[in-house]
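For reproducibility, we list the full input for the uridine-5'-diphosphate complex.
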Amino acid sequence: MHILVTGGAGYIGSHTCVALLEAGHEVTVLDNLCNSSAVALERVQEIAGKPLAFIHGDIRNPDDLDRALQGGADAVIHFAALKAVGESCEKPLAYFDNNIGGTIALLQAMERAGVRRLVFSSSATVYGEPDTVPVTEDAPLRATNPYGRTKLVMEQLIGDCCQAVPEMGAVLLRYFNPVGAHPSGRIGEDPAGIPNNLMPYIAQVAVGRRERLQVFGGDWPTPDGTGVRDYLHVMDLAEAHVRALEFGRDQAGARAINVGTGRGYSVLELVRAFEQASGKVVPYDVVGRRVGDVAELWAEPALAEALLGWRAQRGLATMCADAWRWQAGNPQGYDGP
Ligand code: NAD
Ligand code: UDP
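The corresponding predicted structure, in tokenized form, follows.
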């Protein structure tokens, strides 16, 4: 298939491009590089040993979208979005414009081009503070911040379009906590500024870019008092997209599917696993809880197995070893020497 990948230069997009090229698909990336580097795409092509097409443009610009779709795409994988929860509270309109406005422009361009297949990057954030774990896809949906609201609204917009156009099919992949990097160490997560997420923060402490980790809360109702999440290797997630495309070929309507391992780890378990993988000490202080956090969140991944034939293959030690290989080899991310 020929796939348009919006946001393909980003963290999850770049790893998915490797998996797509390796599965024999043709890839066009549309990315405005607002949170990524073109170097990532050079390295994707180097890893896969195959070329991809890159359009430096914005999903809110209809001309850029038409150009990206003119080669005749069979499907779109839609990663392009702003994703920082804290920033979304300060600049909600920027998030509504980029994420929701961008998705509307994409759906319109798909309609113009007659492209009917979509795989969408949703998030476990749509479950808000869940009543029970593991979380199943039919759990109540709630937004607890503007970023989460954009994901919820985008899911609904896509669902409405699928209702209106019977030939349209969409797979809404609800990711849990993607971490790690390609085993080559050539591509990985390269957050701008201070990392918001736990794994890149730990990696930057281990490599000496930051002094100490702050553990947000030691008094959660969890076995060691720290928050529990479902960490998922980014290459497992990338492969879930390849499966979702295959599943989406003859699927009508919008289908939400959790992508997680079904196993939770605490902050301190992740710290210990990373220390073991890297041979570095990760000093930390336990501080107050972060506003908006939940005690524990992990997926019920049975639907992904039933519908996509997908289940996570890589464990926590591999996630940490691959994250460390990337961080140690690229201490300043893509900007480094
Ligand atoms: P990322 O920031 O690394 O990648 C997003 C890419 O989209 C970037 O390359 C950015 O330049 C591009 N982009 C943003 N706005 C654009 C626009 N208007 N036009 C063109 N390109 C644009 O983020 P990521 O971690 O790879 O996340 C990818 C998707 O997965 C996002 O939709 C995100 O909300 C979702 N998601 C991420 C996580 C996570 O923990 N990383 C968890 C759940 C869901
Ligand atoms: N966390 C932490 N210190 C950090 C970043 C995160 O203790 O610097 C904790 C956070 O409270 C949560 C877990 O690590 O329990 C995962 O947080 P992350 O932001 O990576 O993912 P999310 O909260 O979105 O699931």
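Residues 55 and 63 are 11 Å apart (CA to CA). Residues 177, 196-198, 201, 213-216, 227, 229, 267, 290, 293 surround uridine-5'-diphosphate (ligand 2) (CB under 6 Å). Both points were considered when choosing residues for closer inspection.
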